[in-house]
Hints:
Layout: H1 11-19, H2 26-39, E1 45-50, E2 56-61
Antiparallel strand pairs: 1-2
Family: Belongs to the DNA mismatch repair MutL/HexB family.
Organism: Blyttiomyces helicus
Protein name: Histidine kinase-like ATPase
Amino acid sequence: MHAATVRPIDSTSVHRLCSSQVIVDLATAVKELVENSLDAGATTVEVRLKEYGAEAIEVVDNGSGIEPENYEALGTVSSS
Length: 80
């Protein structure tokens, strides 16, 4: 029996796997938002929670931002 080969998953498959991920707790939601900031080139990230995150989570950063035409897709299933 031969040992299995370990190799990286291609970027398209990684994107598909990650975009179907469900966020179930506050810590994971904040982690994902901070990672989005870093992916957008942010060097500073500020996270604010209103009512401990139950009412709102706000992330302010100096990354490249989101174009207004993409606002409608924010927070929808399988959007990235």
